[in-house]
Amino acid sequence: MTSIKDIAQACGISVATVSKALRGYSDVSSETREKVKAMADRLGYVPDSIAQTMRTNATRNLGVVFIDEAGSGLRHEYFSSLLESFKRTVEKQGYDITLISSNTEGAPWHSLLTHCQYRRCDGVLIACVDFTNPQVTELANSDIPIITIDYQFPDSPAIFSDNRHDMKTLTDYVISRGHRNIAFIHGERTQVTEERIAGFTDACSEHGIEVPPSNLLEAEFHNPEQSERATQLLLSLAQPPTCIMYPDDYSAICVSSILRQRGVHIPEQLSIVGYDGIMMSRIIYPTLTTMRQNAFDIGQLAAEKLIGEIEGTASDEQTATIVRGSLYPGETVRSL
């Protein structure tokens, strides 16, 4: 069986350099990393994960806690893209992932924490959950390294979309098209929602637009039925909005389909805006005006930072990382 020593001899470099190159360390040049990986493939090198586990008591197994109350699960494009990026990045570092479920029926665990302990997770990614859930807080307060998405526990790293900035950018665009009577159907009250409401009001205030309370309504994320009911309330107002901003692309697309069936022309009679930037937003007609969240970078950064926490290479200077999205103008906001 080929060993790291064999690769080192074949490349004419040290065993330590080969080890770092195979694990993708940044202090090894990209040229050396590629040379080492090519030689490893040529010699048929396979990492001895069992030996690594015995030496370090590490399993190189990472848990992913993903509880989607809306029931879309891994079909949710934003989170599935994030998890795919996370998975690819950790696999390059020799880690595997396990989906951690809160379902205890017939299982040898009784909570998220005991499930992670049962699977011997070296670390855990927590995304798309109710962060006030006692099982989630119990896991966050344990000794297992964690990283969270769009929420931060004390002294733990987190990756955030720049929700306030990005929502302001999206609203600024709507205002630049001449709209001043704008409604925002926001998601349920979470940290993400509060940041987006702040971004929306920042933009309106900056442009001297006063938003009446009737133009701010709540509907759960990825719940088009609730968004459709909120839309009907808005359209029944004495002065209905000229543009409605939705909590996510899925809700915006579903509601726009219902409105078209009722004879409402978009954007000629009503402009609509989504959020997330899912693929469907770019292939429907007219294409949806939205904010594209950078799921790939978020997933990659989450993986790198979690591994850094596990391996003791993480920087103590910055525990929260903010990733900005990008505006997709689309065609569903008409110019007034």
Written overview of the protein:
- α8 (163-176) packs parallel to α9.
- The protein has 3 domains: 4-47, Orthogonal Bundle (434 Repressor (Amino-terminal Domain)); 61-161 and 296-325, Response regulator (Rossmann fold, 3-Layer(aba) Sandwich), CATH 3.40.50.2300; 163-292, Response regulator (Rossmann fold).
- 43% of the residues lie in helices and 14% in strands.
- The strands form 3 sheets. Strands 2-1-3-4-5-11 form a 6-stranded parallel β-sheet, with helices on both faces.
- The longest helix is centred in the C-terminal third of the chain and has 17 residues, at 295-311.
- The N and C termini lie far apart (71 Å).
- The protein has helices spanning 4-11, 15-22, 30-43, 49-56, 77-92, 112-118, 134-140, 163-176, 191-206, 224-235, 249-261, 280-283, 295-311; strands at 61-66, 96-100, 123-127, 146-149, 158-161, 182-186, 216-218, 243-245, 271-273, 290-292, 320-323, 326-328.
- With 336 residues, the protein is an alpha/beta fold.
- InterPro entries: HTH_LacI (IPR000843), LacI/GalR-like_sensor (IPR046335), Lambda_DNA-bd_dom_sf (IPR010982), Peripla_BP_I (IPR028082).
- This is LacI family transcriptional regulator.
- Keywords: DNA-binding, Transcription, Transcription regulation.
- Residues 2-56 form the HTH lacI-type domain.
- One of its GO terms (molecular function) is DNA-binding transcription factor activity.
